[in-house]
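Recall that a protein's primary structure is simply its ordered list of amino acids. Everything else, from secondary elements to tertiary packing, is in principle encoded there. The following example makes that idea concrete.
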Amino acid sequence: MDTLQDKNIAVIVGGPSTEAEVSRRTGAAIAGALQEKGYHAELLELVPDKLASQLQDKNIDIVFNALHGHYGEDGVLQGLCEMMGIPYTGPGVMASAVGMNKVMSKCAFQGAGIATAPFAYYFNTQDEDAIAADIIRRFSLPVVIKSAGQGSSIGTVIVHSEDEIRSALNEAFKYSNSIVAEAFIDGDEFTVAVMDDMAFPVIQIVSSTGKYDYYSKYAPGVAKHLCPAPISPELTKKMQNLALDVFHLCHCSGISRVDIMTDKEGNPFVLEINTVPGMTATSLVPDAARAAGIEFPDLCERILKEASVGKF
């Protein structure tokens, strides 16, 4: 009888996304961990128009999705695997698409009564002067302007003066045709990893640069991960429950990460969900898993064992 150890596993990485290099580092760590566990895992660089034939030619049995951004995190890879009948890790098409698009996910959080920062959304078909005027009318400064379809803080700008709004809009619209303007939450930053019905220990993120941008996320030693976070049991439970609510609302599977900010009064607000969280040496999810007593190779194995098709 075949076991998972007999299966050919492709860890899909790279591609044309702005987060391709992070994906390659994530995938290399995952493939190494699975190989350590005795699995036949190989890295497969994404070439979008060749992927289907590559999966067939290599007789791939399972896809371990290590792609960040476009194609891997937005439902495209998930749809391909569903059509080909190849089990894959992580959530399905709908959960991926909603989780990746900040306009859709923020509206979903708001509609479900999940605390999230006040926001407005705009499209590149609108006049930029009108967008800037609406942002000034709706928000006090600073305000956060984000591309709707990017991760790793790419296309995200904190605007401190009205003069900066137009350049922030140009930056955010580089990466997607919709953007979100969001009230700046002036507190501490946290994240909670969730797998099924288990919320991992809360992590507090403290950056030596004072901001958790692309550099802080991926340069070793720049950001500290305090895990478990030095907060009260009550706030810990509240954040874990928020993360579970978001995970279930979005129909997620596998492991996801929910990012949260507190305001000056200590009230938590959900920023976003990452349905294919980073798994590099400096990533948050492996840190949270270790704090929960799960070593990295075991974490990768657990994610692999949940690979399936027929997801929402």
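The chain has three domains: 4-89, 98-115+186-301, 119-183. The chain has a mean pLDDT of 91.
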